[in-house]
Amino acid sequence: MKFALSLSLKNIKRRPFRSAALAALVMFLSFTLFFGAFTIISLQNGLEGYRSRLGADVVVVPNSAKGHGTVDDILLQGITGAYYMSAKDVEKIKAAPGVEQAGRQFFLTSAKASCCSGRVQIIGFEPETDFLIQPWIRESYSGEFSDGDIIVGADVSVPEDKTIKFYGETYRVAAQLDKTGTGLDSAVYANMNTVKQMAHNAANLLETDTFKGVDIDSAASAVMIKTSEGYSAEAVADDINIHITKVQASPAKSMVSGISEGLSGVSGMIGVLVGVIWILAVVILIVVFALLSNERRKEFAILRTMGASRTMIFSVMAFESVMTSAAGAFLGLAISFAVIFPLADTLKAALGFPFLLPGAAVLAALCGGTLLLSVAAGVFTSSVSAYRISQSETGLLLREDA
User: Of 125, 302, 383, 395, which has the fewest beta carbons less than 10 angstroms from its beta carbon?
Assistant: First the structure.
């Protein structure tokens, strides 16, 4: 075995171009498999994060929100504007049949100006009625959260002094939330008193029609509803849409199922594409190894006349395949990490779905599986040719070569 291994290493060094070409094919297999699996897992993680963070049975927004996309677009990509419903409409929503809890939220977008540290979406909530944001906050922060404090999403850049300025005032960053893979990661959260103070400052500092006709102290941008037992989300949403004309209510379940169906379609397409690429690449590997084996018939015939056994011939080719395949698989993984992670945000935007990167344990398992399958593919395809050559008669090999 030591002789077979030594001879394999010498063969690889003697024919570097041939070895590099084989490694490149396996590298392509490795990259394709890792990229496909990584994308599918990230999409599935994003859906789970979206489902767990949405938490409400019904989401109600004013009709003016329609210009900013559908409700699920707003929640997935990050709310991109300011729209408000009156306190009267909020009270009607709370009094609607089947409404057990109604959490009021107020949306505000910071400005690209010296008054603000950056442009982000700010979401205000009522601590006394909120049943969505505060449980999420408690996963990352267990301290006090009072007026003037803000909580930021995972994608918001936090300065070293842990403060961010909005509309001329500085606010303390109390904590940074866990990543969800949705537009919520780019938002800033504060209690209603803090956000309304920001809105008043914005109205005083900027020449804008955003708050024209809006009572900042009593308005709301959205109401998140938890339905009472015995009421369906669809029935509650329909009742609100019928009896409150200035708002749009949507069952959260339908948003999640719609996203899930779209995600399944995308994941299926990626899976099929990866499968087709793998089949083509394996076929190409089989053909390449067969051609290379035919070119090396004289080499193997000479080894046989020198006393090398069929097992030795097979071992030499197997060792060469393992080493070149392993090199290609590792290189494919290295390229995957160099390309995919820096472009994760671009990929997320292109797909248009929640996208949450897998954790370290899942990544390690994915890397191990990719290496194992890629090397196995290379070894299997070479073994077909190796076995055929090793079983050929020496005299026949020499006569064919002559």
Answer: 395
